[in-house]
Amino acid sequence: MPKTQEFVVQTAGEIWTTDVVLAPKAMAEVDAAAIASGIPGYDLMERAGQAVAATALRSFPEANRYIVLCGPGNNGGDGYVAARELAACGASAELYHVEELDRLSGDARTAFERCHLPANPLPTYQMQPGDVIIDAIFGAGLSRDLPPELAERINAITAAGLPVLAVDLPSGIDGATGEMRGAAFTASKTVTFMAQKPGHLLLPGRDHCGSVEIVDIGIPRRMVEAARGALKRNHPGLWQADLPRANLADHKYRRGHVSVFSGPFNGTGACRLSAAAAARSGAGIVAVAARRSAVAALVPHLTSIMLHSVDNELDLAHYLDDPRHQTFVLGPGFGDFAQARSFALAIGHAQRTLVLDADGITAFKGKVDELRDAFADVTPRLVLTPHEGEFHRLFPEIAAENAKGKVEKTRDAAGLLGAIVVYKGADTVIAAPDGSAAINDNAPPWLATAGSGDVLAGMIAGLIAQRVPPFAASCAAVYLHGEAAKLAGSPMTAEDLLEAITAAMASITQD
């Protein structure tokens, strides 16, 4: 079951944050830059291995044996250092190598030679109760399927229920995409170095990591910052400064106007959820724009939410004549694909901002070019919030690129549309056309309930209406959506989620 990731940061004197996310290739460049600056690579390996040993002793003091499984690269080198340190502390440590020892070279060879513990082929390992596995086989650099015999061994250890401490990333998880490469350890804890990798945050990798410790092994922070690029972990530090603050000079129109389109007479619940979420997110005025046939169904349910009749394209044109009507939500429960396309294009050509969700997304299947052209602008005015099925329908070619992970696919979709794309899930990815992207990991499992996506669409629109930039508004709304779900607790309905938005926002915006 997808869970919120826990991060613990160990530092060597510097303040370290957990929003830095480095792809394996970028991390390799950081390592190379550190070595080129005069920091011996073996010193980095020593610090990494020592950190692993310390974590093993601290987290699994009850272990009868520490079984250290070492691969042929630097991840294996970290394992050899860890095994040596464990033995030096009086712990029982046994070494097993996955590939032939003559493949070891460089710093990993040095680590092995300084270990002075016998190393045995992995197939000779016999599991015993009380064993703790230290997985130093592949780490974050894996980008290919595991050999079948290794996958079989990993599955056997997993079936035995032995605790696993992973070095960098559980072996079998692709560090760039979070995908499983045939099989993967499920770790109780993972120790990684300098920065988290996408595989720690994206599913299914996140479910295989356990709690994650990010250890500073002495690479200057400036080198990490130089390599971090535009990918981040979504948290308040990214967007908190953009959120609106209460001002005595405010009035309702200054705080923004959101219009949410309603579905038919028997489908008004989704729009009411979106409208209420926009209001609870701080929008000054929220209105439901409804077909005449649905007005009677909406009247008994709307109090602070205004109601307007927008039955067709001509009605919408008149509605758009009011310059205060700037931010729209279209799609939740809407139903009519042809009218959804027509309304969305009219909003785009009128230079307004649109959050397109649910039926609004599906309505543009095979017609992405029309949507892009209607919202072409320097600053994105369109936000899409697809779940996996909607993403596949709207972007079939991008979705079919199996070599790419969720981050790359979301970025490609955002670039194609010139829009903010919020690719929803337990590991929601938010991306902008300029390549900026954030991975969200605070959503509890019970957020997967009917209507929660309608609430999210309204929250995004509510923040945009208050002049929060669309990318920041999307990141903030996704995070606050998860926090509200935590406050609501399990089991939860979308109505419960609405009630928790105010408290979630207050916890972030309070000085």
The protein's oligomeric status is single chain
For the secondary structure, the number of strands is 18
Strand content: 15-25%
Mean pLDDT: 94
Computed Rg: 26 Å
Task: Tell me what the CATH architecture of the largest domain is.
Answer: 3-Layer(aba) Sandwich
Per DSSP, the total helix count is 20
Biggest sheet, open or closed, and with what strands and sense? 10 strands, mixed
Q: Tell me the strand order in the biggest sheet.
A: 9-18-17-16-15-14-13-10-11-12
- Terminal CA distance reads 35 Å
Under CATH at level 1, the class of the largest domain stands as: Alpha Beta
Outline the low-pLDDT stretches.
6-16
Number of domains: 2
Secondary-structure content class: alpha/beta
Portion of residues in helices? 40-55%
Outline: elongated
In CATH terms, what is the fold-level topology of the largest domain?
A: UDP-N-acetylmuramoyl-L-alanine:D-glutamate ligase
CATH H level, superfamily name of the largest domain: Ribokinase
What features would you describe in this structure?
- The structure is a single chain.
- With 511 residues, this protein is α/β, with parallel strands linked by helices.
- It folds into two domains: 223 residues, 3-Layer(aba) Sandwich (Rossmann fold); 265 residues, Ribokinase (UDP-N-acetylmuramoyl-L-alanine:D-glutamate ligase, 3-Layer(aba) Sandwich).
- It is 41% helix and 15% strand.
- The chain contains 20 helices and 18 strands.
- The chain has a ten-stranded mixed sheet, sandwiched between helices. An eight-stranded parallel sheet has the order 1-8-7-6-5-2-3-4, covered by helices on one side.
- Strand 11, helix 10 and strand 12 form a beta-alpha-beta unit.
- Helix 19 crosses helix 20.
- The protein is elongated.
- It starts with 6 loop residues before the first strand and ends with a helix.
